[in-house]
Design goal:
Transposase, Transposase_Znf, Transpos_ISL3, alpha/beta, five-stranded mixed sheet, Transposase_DDE, about 250 residues
Length: about 250
């Protein structure tokens, strides 16, 4: 094809050939630049030690899947004082080590998977020419999820129920309302477990809860003897209930 350079996934990659396989998938043969740069000492090398291929899934073209067969070279570093003897082409801007998808493809997986979840994201991406399983989507989301913060300085939390399985098994979700992040997930939906969780964290000052359901029976915000812990739902109820009755 005359526009082979348009198929390149990033800088430093030369496109050798582009073919349509089974009238559904594009196979792109590519190779890295003919000169390697040692990541240890920064010296260029043209001495080849060997090579291997990586198969990367890239963004689709007109609804058809694209696979890049990338030939990577292992180079020899001839610098006399460099501790590294061999190294492979570094393509961190194109694909992470041991990844099966390009960085730009992985970004789409994160975006769609985070918005839609496993099965719906799988169905949509397969329709758009990016075949991927729901297990792979969830595994990537877990791998790229931010590390949980320490809960030593938590001040404002929200407590509500959530479903492990719809209309079958419910648990308790606890959120840091200041950082807008999930702190913990309890196995069951009970006031006792919420109280026990709060008693272990004396730094919490404000608790937002739902006035309906189990949490309204015993305010978790009053579980700890520390003064100043406010259950937001109770304050809202006491403040606005007389006004609503007057109407």
């Amino acid at each position: 094809m005359q526009t082979k350079s348009n198929w390149s996934p990033g800088p430093g990659v030369r496109i050798l050939d582009v073919t349509l396989h089974d009238e559904e998938n594009w196979i792109v043969s590519a190779a890295a630049k003919p000169v390697g740069v040692c990541p240890e000492c920064g010296v260029k090398s043209r001495h080849r030690h060997g090579w291997h291929k990586r198969c990367l899934q890239d963004l689709p073209v007109q609804g058809q899947a694209v696979k890049i067969q990338l030939a990577l070279i292992r180079w020899q570093c001839k610098h006399p004082i460099c501790p590294r003897r061999t190294f492979t082409d570094q393509l961190s801007k194109i694909a992470l080590p041991y990844a099966h998808r390009t960085v730009r493809m992985a970004d789409i997986v994160d975006l769609v998977g985070h918005r839609m979840g496993g099965r719906p994201a799988e169905n949509l991406m397969n329709r758009l020419g990016m075949p991927i399983s729901d297990d792979t989507i969830l595994r990537q989301l877990k791998r790229n999820a931010p590390k949980p913060r320490r809960d030593d300085n938590i001040r404002v939390v929200g407590i509500d129920d959530w479903s492990w399985r719809q209309s079958s098994h419910y648990g308790t979700i606890i959120i840091d309302l200041e950082r807008r992040s999930v702190i913990d997930i309890l196995d069951d939906r009970s006031v006792e477990s919420a109280k026990a969780w709060l008693q272990e964290r004396p730094s919490i000052e404000v608790v937002s809860r739902d006035r309906c359901g189990l949490y309204a029976q015993g305010p978790p915000g009053r579980a700890h003897p520390r003064p100043g812990r406010w259950p937001i739902a109770s304050i809202w109820f006491k403040t606005f209930e007389p006004r609503s009755r007057s109407r």
